[in-house]
Amino acid sequence: MAAHDDCSDRGARSFPERRTDRGAAPGLCATRPKRRSQCRSPCSSLAVLVHGLTMRVALLSWDFPPEPTGLGRAASEIAHGLAGHGAEVTVFSADRSGTEETAFGRMIGCAPAKTGLPAFLRKRAAIGHLVAPAAFASAFRRAHRQTPFDVIEATNWYAPAAFLTGGSVPLLVRNSTPAADAFEAQPSPRNRIDNWYAHRLERQTARRSDALISNTRPHRQTIVDLYGLPPDDPNHRVVGLSLADDLIAEGARSKPAPDAAALLFIGRAERRKGFDALMAAMPLANRKRAERGEPPLTLHLVGLSDDEWQRVRDDLPEDTAKHIVWHGRADDRTIRRLLGSVAAVVAPSRYESYGIVYREAAAFGRPLIACREDPSARAFLAAVPCGVLAERCDDTALADAIVTALDPARQADFREAGIDHAATLTREALGAATLAIYRSMLEDGA
């Protein structure tokens, strides 16, 4: 994968087999140097802890709503959850420029320059991955000089905080899907180097952070294995994401739609998302329904760009294409409308980190059709029996799961389990859990 272009989880862990030079390029060093307790001013972390001063948080994200991406929606939940507990949150987002005041605090755009040296370097293998992290670091440091921060939080994905490790402000990395999961199976020599560096950058940023958060226990294990982290690190916590409070309420009010003869898929046209299996499964599922005298299913697609959809559409047989409705990169309002109108949500991912779509299906009481290949899906549906797991991520198994999930005799149980679970996924709970980890980081550095 080329350098990131589309902007579209305490303690000083030590790895003695490597030495660190803080001046080395990100991704080429491992051990985080001992932290100095200097956030707002000397002993400021104690002031936050003892005197109850407002926690000032810098949250780094590649994008933010209204961009309909998982990373952006996760950042929104984190920001609102923290603000609900009185934290002052500044989001640094690479999908925009300028500064604005928001309901949760402040938004600072830090999109890399589109001309000059940054634009030139951005297209180069390996080194291009440093352009956006440099822009994040520059924007953060300017804001930090004006209003000092207590904590930095950033996603692991393509390491936006690569230049902010080992400094005076503690860093928490909240893990999403690692970049390695999107690498092609047989990359060109150029892309092989590019992929190696992107993974190295993520790995070393995580290893030099002060704390990590993963979303589920299977996700935590994946991150431990991929980044070579200590498996028993007490500062690598598991905290699931929330849903917007009004979405939870809207989902609970939504009426069941067992006769809608429609499914919803949210995501990109990626193998990781099981999109290939879904396209192959739809004709089989509709053939099974025809044999039972049931109408064909319409599949609503959300999240595919114009170019993705055109490539998909060109490869589809007409009999399949006529039952698909493409909504592009739809906004939150459209996604909620679709969640309330379909009979089920199909999310046959081979691997998920946040698993936001699993939670959204549960919130609206829609049966979830997921895939056993994803450890997070297995854990989710074992805990919340609100859907069906396809035994394999292929056309036959997925078609069988779709037919099973739409069985009218199971709809009420799926709905009750999902809505009951969604009621626990509050921003208040996410904010409280995250702030507890921040305070633990500050105690370590005090």
TrEMBL record:
<dbReference type="InterPro" id="IPR028098">
    <property type="entry name" value="Glyco_trans_4-like_N"/>
</dbReference>
<protein>
    <recommendedName>
        <fullName>Glycosyltransferase subfamily 4-like N-terminal domain-containing protein</fullName>
    </recommendedName>
</protein>
<dbReference type="Pfam" id="PF13579">
    <property type="entry name" value="Glyco_trans_4_4"/>
</dbReference>
<dbReference type="GO" id="GO:0016757">
    <property type="term" value="F:glycosyltransferase activity"/>
</dbReference>
<dbReference type="InterPro" id="IPR050194">
    <property type="entry name" value="Glycosyltransferase_grp1"/>
</dbReference>
<feature type="region of interest" description="Disordered">
    <location>
        <begin position="1"/>
        <end position="31"/>
    </location>
</feature>
<feature type="domain" description="Glycosyltransferase subfamily 4-like N-terminal">
    <location>
        <begin position="69"/>
        <end position="232"/>
    </location>
</feature>
<feature type="compositionally biased region" description="Basic and acidic residues">
    <location>
        <begin position="1"/>
        <end position="22"/>
    </location>
</feature>
<dbReference type="Pfam" id="PF13692">
    <property type="entry name" value="Glyco_trans_1_4"/>
</dbReference>
